[in-house]
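Q: What structure does this chain adopt?
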Amino acid sequence: MPLAGWEELAADADRRRPLLPVAVAGGADVTVLEALRAALDRGWVCPRVAGPEADVRRLAGEHGVSLDGFTLVDAADAAAAAVAEVRAGRARLLMKGQVATPALMRAVLDAEAGLRRGRTVCQVVLMEIVPAGRRFLLADTGVRPRPSLAEKEDILRDAADVARRLGAGPVRVAVLSATESVSDALPDTRDAAELARLAAAGRFPGCVVQGPLSFDLAYAADAATRKGVGGEVVGAADVLLFPDLTAANLTVKAIMYTADCRFGGVLCGAACPVVFMSRADSTPTRLRSLSLALRLAESTGEPGASATGGFPSGR
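A:
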């Protein structure tokens, strides 16, 4: 089955109106406030916005965004304060607002006060190519510069879990590289082949993993025909697993800025779903990312949640 798209995710959130509390790290950005206002009005979330309160109120006033229903958490360190809201049980989601990624990641990964749970934290982006009606997940697109084989296993599991929450089954995973052949000149091709071998041995239940595959083979069936490459994943990947952050970042941004597409993303592997995209993103992108995080948080056994609901320390 194809992955659920953005319209379906929004309609699902509109129907359920879960009003989940979301802790927002940095609210001094009009697109953040607009997205939260829209999400609150639609019954999706109850915003708890951390950061300098005066800045949030000033910006909201300047742009005519009502803060009715918002809880403002006045704090100099927006990232740490937002993470503390989650740890205290006052929020079930975390959202990256107007804060730098390193600052948020420091707060999330703090061994004593963060949201670590012993897994690799990664960004998963849901991409929808509008003209083709094609949807796929991309990972890791924002955290790990050069993931090890063990980290790639974690990333694969979390991305596949997101795919299942979006309706895929079995989940078809393409482990990407610059070529479909294993080459000593490209060490990541060996990792790709090993992940495919592990999958065949049953390491990733419910997944069909193929790699190494080039992007065109993962995306387009006609490329597979021309190259004479077969397999269940070829031309039909639900998940594109990248070899490193450079390849992922360049690919994702190239699609974002040149294709007719819609996208949004979350962090997986933490103690709750984290709405996580660029500070340069638009209001619709932030709202879409919230709808994805809601689907994950409202599913049984949400990705990133510890079994006990607690927060392990010193890991």
